Every structure is written in C-alpha cells, then in structure tokens.
Give the backbone structure.
Amino acid sequence: MLEAQHVTVRRGTKVLLADASLAIVPGKLTAIIGPNGAGKSTLLRVMAGELRPSEGAVSLDGRDIRDIPVARLATRRSVVAQSTNLSFPFTVLEVVMLGAIVPGFGVKDPEAAAAARDALAAVGLRTLENRMLHELSGGERQRVHIARALCQLHTAPRRPGETAALLLDEPTASLDLKHQDGVLTVVKEQSQSGRAVMLVIHDLNLAAAFADEVVLMADGRIVGRGTPDEVLNDDLLSHTFGCRLRIVASGDGRRLVLPAAIARRARTGAAAG
C-alpha cells in the first residue's frame, strides 16, 4: 500500500497541500479529481516521492518513502507526468525501453525490447516503434510515456507481496475519445491485476466510469472520498467546482456529470421526443 499521512506542502507562505491523508491500495484504481489549483498534481508528486512534504510522511508498504533508495523505488512505482520533454533523438521503441533498462533491473536488451513492444501494443502504438518521438503528435507522445511506465512495472524486479504502484497525472488530457477509452481500459487492467493505481483526471465522467474510489480535492485539501456514487453528487460537486452540476442517468444506467443548463436541455429534449 502507498499511503500519505497528514501531508502538508508549503511554498513560502502559500499552502499547496494541507493535512492530506490517503491510501492507494493494490487492486484499486483511485481517481483524484477537483478544480484547477486544488493540489491534485502536488499530491501525486508527494506520493511518488518526487516532492518532499513540509509536514507528514508517505510510506510504501509501511516504510517511509524517503528511506527507500532511488534505484529501489524505481522497482516499486512508475510515474507518468502531465508532460515529459526528451531532448535526445530517440525512437519510440527506445523511449519505452528506458522503462526496462534502469540500473539494477538486470534486464537484457532483447528482453527489454520484447517488453517495450508489448507495452506499445497495449496502448495501440506497436506500428510506430521505429518513428522518432519528436515526429509524433502530443497524444501519441503521451501514450508512449504510458507505455514506458507499463514497461517499467512489468520488468522491475520485486519481492513477492511488494506493492507496485502506477501514478498518472492527466494521462488522457491530449487524447481523443477513442484513445481515452483505450488508455483507461489498460490502466484499469493494471489495477485489476493487483497494482495500486493513482490517476489525476479532470474528466468527471471518465472518473465515474473507471475508478473504484474517487478523491475530491479543493484548495489543497481532500474534501470528499468514496465510491463514484458516494462522491459524485450534485451538491458536493457544485460547491467544490463553483458551478451548478447535475448527475443524470445514461441509457445504460451509468451516472453522468453535466452542467445544470445542459442537463435541463437534455431532459427537455427527451421529454419533447
């Protein structure tokens, strides 16, 4: 389990994260939602061990993450940032292989290449392995980095029972609808295989469709936590996002989050039809 305990992050007099406690549990996909500036990305960076909290601590299977050597931490968690810039002229396959050729992994090049190709296939990019990364669209590059993270978790040497965590910050932001669904299906499969998955996401409907647990943040604080049905309700979301939102049922029974005006028009249209 990856757990934050009463974590606070300050930058000068500004509080970016305030007394946040959260457990990312193996076998579950936890979606972090909230308005811009809520502290979602800060929380993910703290959970990943990339940002040291001003107060509180993060532990991985009960051990303070600050006490885990960087090379060892790489075997336990993989991170996909909102944006990643590589200045070297790497092919797509070479970028994904970076997830497997971490010092200490002991993975030979043929094994790394095979794992990288499997990861590329999972995100629908198998045919682009020989393209240069800089030639790809923003959405394609994001899928390459997701494949790299998958390759890292697949090849990392871990002891039985150790938590493997996948942390993703807005992985669908630059993807079209088809690839949003494809990527989140792969991410969901990672949680179903026993990995602990933390997903920062703005799209509330994607959170409702894929998450096992939803964590709602505002002003650096966690203000709601539970199943999608528990957290995604009219009053809590409207108050947090500062606009009127409505939860409506789709034709197949799923919950959809819509601005109140759109929900009204949808009901009016359905009644007229």
Notes: The mean pLDDT is 92. The first strand starts at residue 2 and ends at 11.
